[in-house]
Amino acid sequence: MTPAQPVLLRRGDFGPAVAAVCERLVLTGDLPTDPSVTDAAVEAVFDERVEQAVKSFQQRRGLIVDGIVGRTTYAVLDGARWGLGDRVLRYLPEHFLEGDDVAALQARLVELGFRPGKVDGMHGPTTDAAVQAFQAAVGLVPDGTVGPETMRAFQGLRRSVSGGSANALREREQIRRSGFSLGGRTIVLDPGHGGGDDGARGGRGLVEARLALDVARRIEGRLSAHGVNVVFTRTESTDGGSDEERAAFANSCDADLVLSLHTDHSATGAAHGAATYFYGHPDASGRGDWSVIGESFADLLLREVVARTGLTDCRSHARTWPLLRRTRMPAVRLDFGYLDHAGDADALADAQTLDHVAEAVVVALQRVYLGEADTARTGVLRLDDLRRHLESMRAQQAHASGAGADRTTG
Ligand SMILES: [Zn+2]
């Protein structure tokens, strides 16, 4: 899927290029497979179904939702075919490798306290430096090439994360609770919608406005215990007004930070996952004006939410929405799940998931206000854990090969 000319496919188009797009959309889970179509490659038509699938993909990836496959959507869709480990990743100065596997690599490096730069799916020089630092830290040759050996180090890690991680998280959170205080800060919580506007609706009778308020209350309980002054933009019965009004309200509170809570809805029911948004121009070229703390909090928050809830990571995005732009303090919006997606709805119908979201907010807030020295720690992993894990893996391998030798000689 590397076209020579600029791609622009829209409703009404047909042919092999449309077939290639459909194939990708099926892989990303945005386009349900249609059993009545036997020869998709010949008959592929950019119909309403495809347009909805493109929109749901664009929405999840923070692209402009227009249902048209232009250059950007095409490039992101093309990058979505790569999973971490599918190909060897390295830094190519003349043409950065791009794709979901690069983003997964960057996210992994961030979790370990390395600094690959923005998690944007572009393998640039900062990511390269972080890969080399990671390799050196775990005793590999720091050549910057993410091949089988480096992948094994990451995969070993994934196993170590999955076992008993919830407990480890809780323990670390308790340690943080006792050793660190958010006391005295003012946080504005903005449950989306309300006052007659329910927002999105979905499976299991879920209503966005109610869910947002529910999570906000769970966050409030936890933050109040830390001595944080929590202010709501709305309650059950009051209307928060427009996003402009909510921003003005936060400014009048002289808040340290604003967190807006929403859920999503896609026309197809195929989109799923969580995303965060901070103030900044989506156009990655001149990085110009943006909120550094907002970005940092948005990244940390999403990571904590994904680690605790298992919702899909739909990444953190720069936006210029009124609530983000008009607030004088860092403002972040969290979209926790798609209500019309069966899996997300099941998760969100469980009060425990809502507690996990609330915990994620508290931990991310603590981390954002911690000093630079503590940024190597994460809610999920620490480098020490990785070193210990790799040592035990090597010991096991040595043991296994020794046992094999015994058998052949014996
Ligand atoms: Zn909403």
UniProtKB/TrEMBL annotation:
Keyword field contains Flavoprotein: no
Keywords, ordered alphabetically: Hydrolase
Residues of the MurNAc-LAA domain: 247-366
One family name in Pfam for this protein: Amidase_3
Name used for this protein in its record: N-acetylmuramoyl-L-alanine amidase
Protein species of origin: Terrabacter lapilli
